[in-house]
Design goal:
The structure is a single chain. This protein is an alpha/beta fold. The protein has two domains: 146 residues, 3-Layer(aba) Sandwich (Rossmann fold); 177 residues, Dihydrodipicolinate Reductase, domain 2 (2-Layer Sandwich). Helix content is 35%, strand content 24%. The chain is built from ten helices and 15 strands. It has a seven-stranded mixed β-sheet, covered by helices on one side. Strands 3-2-1-4-5-6 form a six-stranded parallel β-sheet, with helices on both faces. Strand 1, helix 1 and strand 2 form a beta-alpha-beta unit. Helix 4 runs parallel beside helix 5, helix 5 packs antiparallel against helix 10 and helix 7 packs across helix 10. The longest helix is centred in the C-terminal third of the chain and has 20 residues. The radius of gyration is 20 Å and the shape is globular. The structure holds nicotinamide-adenine-dinucleotide. The site of nicotinamide-adenine-dinucleotide has 23 residues, from helix 1.
């Protein structure tokens, strides 16, 4: 990238999230262009790149990163493919926005942290987009003023209409609760030290064998508790809510009060049906922030360490689900690179 030229981005993985990010780079965010796309499904990559000037199409992520005009990488392939893509980007010392999870488990996430440390500078922003949601940003700012006193508890609810057919009981934690894990660490500025998971009898609306809903309790090193109701087949909508209970008051986000109607003896509104709708503003602002900081040669936002910490907490959560009881989180020493 030179001077005022747009940031050339290689998008790896052009499924649901990847295609949406391609649209966002192409039409919403200024100062960036889609320079290349890669997907193991060539037809999908070709379809997503159609109509974008100068965008090359690849099936090999490393080839897309090596393509002409690529200055940065956005990884939106499935979690198990992230480590290889991240290491390929590091080989070229390219800045990366990596969709969550950084990688699916703590050991591979730690390898990424170590590889970034070996580069000697931060290169990765992880796609924990709730940190860019206007309501969560306001909640964080309020907690930081100290007006409400010390946060004692966070109550989180995370509900989806229906889960994908391949969703497993542990994915409720690794794919869904991973967002609340990051939100808890970020809002409170504390590390999570232990996880307990309770599961009531599954909903008849959940696929056979899926333990849905679950109730997850996170303990922090600051003495706070954060609980998460995760219910991925609630049937009625996509809801993400958080309430902070502090010493002198509470603050709550995610109530979905957009347009409220009063008619025919009833009042009501609509509930968002998926994350692309609920978090549209957050995704836009996340990408804008990444493009702007990258163009300035800086790296901000959720780091590879945040991705690793989330993976370690989720791993403890999966053990708590499978074995029962309280499982302590084992975290490596935090490298100086991450402050
Ligand atoms: N931040 C969020 O709110 C959010 C929401 C949904 C998904 N995600 C994350 O986005 C990522 C993608 O999820 P999705 O829902 O778009 O999945 P998807 O299955 O719709 O798309 C994944 C795409 O990657 C392609 N692919 C598979 N292996 C690949 C490889 N090795 N290299 C390149 N392409 C490969 C697949 O062919 C597919 O087109 C995941 O990490 C997921 O956790 C984040």
């Amino acid at each position: 990238m030179h001077g005022s030229e747009p940031l050339g981005i290689a998008v790896i993985g052009t499924g649901r999230m990847g295609a949406d990010h391609v649209r966002r780079i192409d039409r919403v965010v200024s100062g960036a262009r889609v320079a290349a796309v890669a997907d193991t499904d060539a037809e999908r990559a070709k379809a997503v790149a159609a109509g974008i000037d100068g965008c090359t199409v690849h099936t090999d992520p490393a080839a897309a990163m090596a393509a002409a005009g690529v200055d940065a990488v956005l990884i939106a392939s499935p979690g198990p493919a992230h480590e290889a893509a991240l290491l390929a980007a590091f080989e070229r010392d390219l800045p990366v926005l990596c969709e969550k999870p950084l990688t699916p488990d703590a050991a591979s996430a730690l390898r990424v942290v170590e590889a970034e440390q070996a580069l000697g500078h931060r290169r990765v922003q992880v796609g924990f987009m709730r940190r860019y949601d206007a309501e969560y940003v306001r909640l964080k700012a309020l907690l930081e003023t100290g007006q409400l006193g010390r946060p004692l508890m966070l109550h989180n609810r995370h509900r989806n209409v229906a889960s994908s057919p391949f969703f497993t009981s542990s994915m409720l934690i690794t794919d869904s609760v991973s967002h609340e894990v990051d939100v808890t660490r970020w809002l409170l500025g504390q590390e999570i030290t232990a996880v307990t998971v309770h599961a009531p009898g599954s909903s008849s609306g959940a696929p056979d064998g899926l333990r849905d809903p679950q109730f997850v309790v996170l303990e922090t090193d600051g003495g706070a508790l954060s609980d998460v109701e995760i219910f991925v087949n609630c049937g009625f909508g996509y809801q993400v809510q958080a309430e902070a209970v502090c010493e002198r008051g509470t603050a709550r986000v995610g109530d979905d009060h957009h347009l409220v109607t009063h008619t025919a003896g009833r009042w009501g509104g609509t509930i968002t049906q998926d994350w692309t709708e609920r978090f549209a503003q957050a995704y836009d602002d996340e990408l804008r922030a990444w493009v702007d900081t990258t163009r300035r040669g800086e790296v901000r936002g959720p780091s590879a360490w945040d991705g690793y910490a989330a993976a370690a907490v989720c791993e403890a959560g999966v053990r708590a689900l499978e074995e029962g009881g309280r499982v302590e989180v084992e975290l490596a020493e935090k490298p100086a690179l991450y402050g």
